[in-house]
User: Which sequence fits this backbone?
């Protein structure tokens, strides 16, 4: 079957059970950034509530979730740029994560580099940035896996570095076919382990993250270094690793 002819019914028939962990990274300032503006925890909570009121609403079917899980599903505002399984515009949210924390770190490293590739005059940060990695439990009977037949025959489409049109079309059809999760290959992870695109909040088995780690990521002309202090892990991403993406391949590393 051609990748262009996947229908909601066909995707629905391919849906299988999936259960596992899904890792994601956020900047470690996600809770304390407003503390410096307040004199007490009570004042900080008031400020957080005021900020929350300005954000797009969380969909009703996601309101039972911790904000770290629910945030990607805020879709009241226009999504500025399309991503692999979400179109630009006023579109439904997608929760992106990875089965392994190392894969999630590789994805974050890539997107940090992408920011600097689009801002060639911006110097590298002097210090490492701190991130919180957290895992969520996913469980559903409605998952499709693009890394196995029949989908893997079109791997070059699902793993294209910059053209997401076919992936977005697949996600559109998947939603109509009541698919909850798309499992796919990470092209940022040097080991090509799996990412997950969670399409609905019902796929979360727990209402809050089940594990957390603190990572520090440093960008430099020699590439990216990421370190987790406990349990200790160290990862290196040299400049050549992401060179298959034309946006990174043309980036000026000395700055």
Assistant:
């Amino acid at each position: 079957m051609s990748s262009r002819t996947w229908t909601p019914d066909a995707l629905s028939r391919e849906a299988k059970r999936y259960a596992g962990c899904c890792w994601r990274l956020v900047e470690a300032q996600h809770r304390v950034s407003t503390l410096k503006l307040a004199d007490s925890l009570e004042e900080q909570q008031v400020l957080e509530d005021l900020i929350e009121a300005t954000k797009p609403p969380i969909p009703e079917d996601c309101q039972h979730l911790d904000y770290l899980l629910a945030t990607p599903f805020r879709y009241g505002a226009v999504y500025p740029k399309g991503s692999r399984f979400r179109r630009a515009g006023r579109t439904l949210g997608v929760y992106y994560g990875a089965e392994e924390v190392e894969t999630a770190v590789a994805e974050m490293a890539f997107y940090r580099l992408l920011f600097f590739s689009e801002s060639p005059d911006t110097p590298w940060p002097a210090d490492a940035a701190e991130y919180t990695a957290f895992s969520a439990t996913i469980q559903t009977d409605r998952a499709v896996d693009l890394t196995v037949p029949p989908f893997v025959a079109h791997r070059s489409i699902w793993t294209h570095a910059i053209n997401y049109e076919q992936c977005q079309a697949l996600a559109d059809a998947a939603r109509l076919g009541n698919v909850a999760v798309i499992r796919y290959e990470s092209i940022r992870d040097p080991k090509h382990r799996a990412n997950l695109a969670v399409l609905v909040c019902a796929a979360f088995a727990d209402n809050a993250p089940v594990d957390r780690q603190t990572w520090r990521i440093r960008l430099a002309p020699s590439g990216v270094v990421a370190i987790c202090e406990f349990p200790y892990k160290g990862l290196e991403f040299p400049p050549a690793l992401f060179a298959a993406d034309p946006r990174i391949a043309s980036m000026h590393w000395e700055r």
In short: The CA atoms of residues 33 and 176 lie 39 Å apart. The longest helix spans residues 101-117.
